[in-house]
# Entry
Amino acid sequence: MIDIKILRSEPQKIKTSLEKRGGRYLPVFGEICKKDAEYKATLKDAETGRSRKNAISREIGSFKMKKLEVPKRLEDEVQEIKKNLSLAEARLQELEKELQALLLTIPNILNESVPPGAGEVDNKIIFEDISAKREFSFKPLDHHALGEKLDILDFERAAKLSGSRFALLKGRGARLERAIAQFMLDLHTGENGYTEMFTPFLVNSRAMTGTGQLPKFEEDLYRTASEPPLYLVPTAEVPLTNIHSGETLSEAELPKKFTACTACFRQEAGSYGKDTRGLIRNHQFNKVELVWLTKPEDSAEALVKMKEHAEKVLQLLGLPYRILELCGADVGFSSSKTYDLEVWMPSENRFREISSCSNCGDFQARRMNMRFKRSGGGTEHVHTLNGSGLAVGRTFAAILENFQQEGGSVVIPEVLRKYTGFDKIG
# Structure
């Protein structure tokens, strides 16, 4: 949530950020400004009323001390002021709730370094490593066809069980999926200093609101029919970031670094007809998530480190990849700055996203009231960061496509072999 103090002291900063995001949130911003102007005017009227009420009360007290009759006009005016104050205070409470609800619907303020742009075509390529890119002597198959040919993926029976956009992994395919996740978790906990967590897959609306999924993205979430409802996690970012919601940490406790592998559930609302084949855009998929809680002055450097941790996974697997700095219109709702990592997919002859690493500043911490206390005194909101380290299903797909052989087999990257127990599927 944006700090309302910034709304009141630097409204142009917010407006400029929303314009950089493409302008679609500007009407809501206009409504917020109107509500806030009414709030300030109502507050001023209430303060004026209280001041006048106190003055009259002193005047009435003076009459009573002198044992004089209190003029009826003063008593009538006090009653009128009390009535108006009651109405003003009730309206102030309403406006506070309305402002809070509206502030939940507008995105984070972009970092000044975020490049301008109207969409993904304007994202800036900042690094590319295609040294592992192969020149195939045959036409490479996509991972969907490879998986079915090798009898490790079964989309037809998955559809029988659950419908479209689900996958059934079999035999060595299931083991490869598990190996990829284990490799990533071992790397992040053993070398990168993350604490592994195993979180609930169902969370409440408060947790979803804290990280920004609610109220903006409710149509993309799976929810239970219970009251109050619970939501299937769209990413482990939600439970991991909310672990210390409502708490005040000590400065010495920061940074905190969490990782978890969870199933992720998304309705993929608005993606009809996109990536319906294979593992790229499913309703259920596995992902290893990275989350940092930092002091404000450390979050920019933490974002760079998180990006490098995700990047290391691709380097060790020997997959061609590139890194993008997202332009304003493509940065996610809760993020102030984002890097995307994309992996090369030979069958499509293009790169596909496999990780997003974002610095959310204090945006999420304000929503979940998560603070830290400075050693010298004073409390502040922590900064939160999240990233994929990596999406397991997309990594699975990239391995199949990049390491396929002419005969239809797939060679397993060397770093995974101690986890799979085999060096080839075929």
Summary: The longest helix spans residues 26-65.
